[in-house]
From TrEMBL:
GO BP annotations, alphabetical order: translation
InterPro entries: Ribosomal_uL22, Ribosomal_uL22_bac/chlpt-type, Ribosomal_uL22_bac/org-type, Ribosomal_uL22_CS, Ribosomal_uL22_sf
Organism: Methylopila jiangsuensis
Gene name per UniProt: rplV
Quaternary structure (record): Part of the 50S ribosomal subunit.
Keyword rRNA-binding listed: yes
CC per GO annotation: cytosolic large ribosomal subunit
Reported function: The globular domain of the protein is located near the polypeptide exit tunnel on the outside of the subunit, while an extended beta-hairpin is found that lines the wall of the exit tunnel in the center of the 70S ribosome.
Pfam families: Ribosomal_L22
PANTHER family linked to this entry: CHLOROPLAST 50S RIBOSOMAL PROTEIN L22-RELATED (PTHR13501), LARGE RIBOSOMAL SUBUNIT PROTEIN UL22M (PTHR13501:SF8)
Alphabetically ordered keywords of this record: Ribonucleoprotein, Ribosomal protein, RNA-binding, rRNA-binding
Name of the protein in its database record: Large ribosomal subunit protein uL22
Family: Belongs to the universal ribosomal protein uL22 family.
Amino acid sequence: MGKQSAPRALPDNEAKAVLRMVRISPQKLNLVAQLIRGKKVETALADLTFSRKRIAGQVKKTLESAIANAENNHDLDVDDLVVAQAYVGKSIVMKRFSPRARGRVGTIQKPFSHLTIIVRQVERDAAKA
């Protein structure tokens, strides 16, 4: 007799995956997120595969997780999926200190970020099908 599960926050044609506490600044992660927004998932995966950004591998893994969630948990067709949203949020900032000249100190900030990817199933056009 546990607690009732919360109602589904997303519509029935969407699935999501979240990557938390990534050791990269939100600004840099957003550059990669912009690369895949609004694209079909096959194109987005290809773009991430050949991207030269360090974080592209982890973003690709998160996108693959969102695709797997859509296929296995929500019975969506993988061929009709597009990246509906890919957004970045700030997380903690670790502060480190580096000694400088004349007894001063320089601060080093090491930011973390969160990434959320939402994929949506779109209907095929009658002309294409």
